[in-house]
Amino acid sequence: MTAQLNPRGDVAVLVPAAGAGVRLGPGRPKALRLLAGEPLLVHAVRRLAAAASVHTIVVAAPPAEVEAVRALLAPVAPVTVLPGGAERQASVAAALAAVPAGPEIVLVHDAARALTPPELVESVAAAVRAGHDAVIPVLPVVDTVKEVGAGEVVLGTVDRTALRVVQTPQGFRRAVLTAAHSAAAGDPLTDDAGLVEKQGVPVVCVPGSEYALKVTRPFDLALAEHLLAAGA
Ligand SMILES: Nc1ccn([C@@H]2O[C@H](COP(=O)(O)OP(=O)(O)OP(=O)(O)O)[C@@H](O)[C@H]2O)c(=O)n1
Ligand SMILES: C[C@](O)(CO)[C@H](O)COP(=O)(O)O
């Protein structure tokens, strides 16, 4: 049976957490790497569970760590844990298949975005509830962007006024995400909105949060430690 948080909530959150974390360097799978003494996944799930609209959380864990992740999350929140896939898309599809009847809004959220505030979860869900089929949190690009060619020689300066950096949670009407993943098996696209875009569904942006940074490289982990120490 799928564990529930708030039976009156209308949001299921899928948490792909099965990645290795190659860019973070050698060690345990990234979701289990420690941030202030607790795994990134624990930080992420605690914040998701604090969002009032969340009915269900489904975590796609590294296949060899499913039991360990169940034990780790049991004291944090009622969560369903299943094995993830070799690619992020497969992990999300596996989690989506386990969502029980009920929630009609589905959010997909990286375990690696461990400090994402519950308020961002609610604002993405609210935009889907308001009628958008697909919603992504974004930030503006704050640096000048260059396009380069062979030998790292600059070809030109990119107009960044229309560029956005994309975060999670990404929110979808359930039927829209299900259709996109049914058509997407094995698609190497890095985010779920990309799959939905391929279906011709409009994707709408809402303001993201600096705290929703993705822990990707060692510097990000150090930054997250500082943010947590400062009260994030
Ligand atoms: N087969 C995979 C690959 C990734 N993810 C998850 O997708 C999220 C975003 O991926 P990313 O930050 O790129 O994580 P990794 O793939 O682990 O990173 P790397 O590319 O450095 O190995 C992470 O929470 C990661 O655990 C997953 O569930 N299953
Ligand atoms: C989904 C994502 O977090 C949006 O920014 C991202 O695409 C995950 O994959 P990446 O390979 O680390 O870009």
TrEMBL record:
GO MF term set: 2-C-methyl-D-erythritol 4-phosphate cytidylyltransferase activity
InterPro entries assigned: IspD, IspD/TarI, IspD/TarI_cytidylyltransf_bact, ISPD_synthase_CS, Nucleotide-diphossugar_trans
Keyword Transferase part of the UniProt annotation: yes
EC number: 2.7.7.60
Enzyme type, top EC level: transferase
Site (Positions MEP for the nucleophilic attack): 160, 214
Keyword Transmembrane helix: no
Site residues (Transition state stabilizer), renumbered to this chain: 23, 30
Keywords recorded for this protein, A-Z: Isoprene biosynthesis, Nucleotidyltransferase, Transferase
GO BP, sorted A to Z: isopentenyl diphosphate biosynthetic process, methylerythritol 4-phosphate pathway
Pathway info: Isoprenoid biosynthesis; isopentenyl diphosphate biosynthesis via DXP pathway; isopentenyl diphosphate from 1-deoxy-D-xylulose 5-phosphate: step 2/6
Reactions catalysed, as given in the entry: 2-C-methyl-D-erythritol 4-phosphate + CTP + H(+) = 4-CDP-2-C-methyl-D-erythritol + diphosphate
Function: Catalyzes the formation of 4-diphosphocytidyl-2-C-methyl-D-erythritol from CTP and 2-C-methyl-D-erythritol 4-phosphate (MEP).
Descriptive protein name: 2-C-methyl-D-erythritol 4-phosphate cytidylyltransferase
Species of provenance: Micromonospora deserti
Biological classification of the source: Bacteria, Bacillati, Actinomycetota, Actinomycetes, Micromonosporales
Gene: ispD
